[in-house]
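Good day; I would like, with your permission, to put a structural problem before you. I would ask you to consider whether the tokens describe a fold that such a sequence might reasonably adopt. The full record is reproduced below for your convenience:
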Amino acid sequence: MVSGPVGFCLILLGTVLVFHTVAAGGATTEKGVTYDGRSLIIDGQRKLLFSGSIHYPRSTPEMWPSLIKKTKEGGIDVIQTYVFWNLHEPKLGQYDFSGRNDLVKFIKEIRSQGLYVCLRIGPFIEAEWNYGGLPFWLRDVPGMVYRTDNEPFKFHMQQFTSKIANLMKSEGLYASQGGPIILSQIENEYGNVEAAFREKGASYVKWAGQMAVGLKTGVPWIMCKQPDAPDPVINTCNGMRCGETFPGPNSPNKPKMWTEDWTSFFQVYGSEPYIRSAEDIAFHAALFVAKNGSYINYYMYHGGTNFGRTSSSYFITGYYDQAPLDEYGLLRQPKYGHLKELHAAIKSSANPLLQGKQTILSLGPMQQAYVFEDPSSGCVAFLVNNDATKVIQMKFRNNAYSLRPKSIGILQNCKTLIYETAKVSVAKNIRVTTPVQVFNDPDKWEVFRETIPTFSGASLKKNVLLEHTYLTKDKTDYLWYTSRFKPDSPCAKPSLYIESSGHVVHVFVNNALAGSGHGSRDIRVVKLQVPVSLVNGQNNISILSGMVGLPDSGAYMERKSYGLTKVQISCGGTKTIDLSGSQWGYSVGLLGEKVKLHQWRNLQRVKWSTNNAGLIKNRPLAWYKTTFDGPKGDGPVGLNMGSMGKGEIWVNGESIGRYWVSFLTPSGHPSQSIYHIPRAFLKQFGNLLVVLEEEGGDPLGISLNTISVVGSNQAQSQSQFS
């Protein structure tokens, strides 16, 4: 389906389809942002816009100017970002817009560099972000059901959405006020779950659209992947191939927009990175424009870093590292350069694209020409070769053109081939990590080991296995389940069997680690059976349940439960004792977390061990600390954690995220080994490094590295990481 403005006319003539676009109401001199069936109209001018997603909390304020500058130089017109509810309202009614959360500062920096903003308020955002951006306190609101026609949820959603809209108004940031925000989004990919809520899903969509429009921001609202978006909200496409899959907006009065053109794909622990080629991205972007698309956003243009505990379930700390600007903000070539050339080629013919008459010609069984022609602004043609195996010779207006397999050629003035999506002229670059310090001196490390709690020391005891997040409230990844067991008869070859809907379990019997297990994004229940050593008397059983982020999507998220669901002791297969209904003690979090051991001022609150290499290596539930000087220069810096297992890292009190290098991909490699330390976190001298290791690793193998990019020919003799 090809969509057009009001009054489009369809003429079928042999193999030629002619679409004559007539702007609703003609040209306008109205200030601000409006739209019709062809495009957004900003200050009276039609706009064909390329946008790039950059999420402000996934980088630092010190990085924002450079990221935005590089994005603009890549031919991008708009920066698109989500708004992160659980960052801004971590407690009900208490707001945080400081540091990486300074949304206003981020938008003002975009404005200072002359770009527009698409503000995706949500406030549910998914985004591979912890809990999809919802603050966890929502779950404890009586009667709460997320993302449906539920009064408690609608109340808090409207409160936060209004808070953000009013903040933007107070700073004069909407285009209707002369600011850079030209679009806002309400909800996010709700079409994926709407059916689960039946009639309440449809009424919620209508309410959300009306609520958003009622905020009177003066700019259009959008809903992505939402075919039933109520007027005047524009429904948009997300995906990799919206030129092929998107049937178009649900009204001929709305423009055709692509809010997420995935430049790569998210990555979870245990998986390989998804590599999407520059050629494929360019092909589908060009095809979308050829089919009357007028807004394309690359998701992500810069992915950044999931600092702290902000990533969703099992997602790695680096986010969309394969984007045109990588996790560190370095150019990823040829993707960056090839798309920059595409943007320039399309913008060189923006006038005929937006003002001209569209004609679609068949040039072969798998070949077409999309032609836009206007007497005053000229002509542009998109020649499409959908054959993925053959170079095709195409004739168009008495000229011959050779197109590579699965390629689109752009003809300026309908004659000169100025760009071909499958022809990459930009040289590939390689990312290089250069070690500048290896932390291999045991005398410079100190270690503190967590005490394994026991049932007798628990302040909370219940005759049931309680749900993990019911107790943790997502303030920590960790919950201790403790019990005790005294065999009433000899137990031959004892083993402990555990089932958990959490992500990780570490089993200790009488203070000794008996075994560990974990799930994955695809394996939702951890099942672990480990041999154990029991004494004749009382045995202490201590099980640490761990989460690696909360889910970011799905219906009825408030009903999901985590943590231990079954605990049994088996005696050589002849007898099974079910401990699930026994008395259990509970302790939330780790001692090191409670005393904030990652901060300078709290280091003396525990006793550290020193000068013993034997105490350093392969110790589960250990905290390590050392100091280091910042590398010279101003380029990116990362820690290589390849010698460790699983845990979290802090530099000068700032968490640079979870690490999990022991969870290997099918090819036998960690999903992520290098962890980004923003330069803003570093001092010139005496930086504090604190590492929490769950499983047991070797900190003497950790190294500090600088990160750079070089041409592929220069990288042959250097250490590579990509």
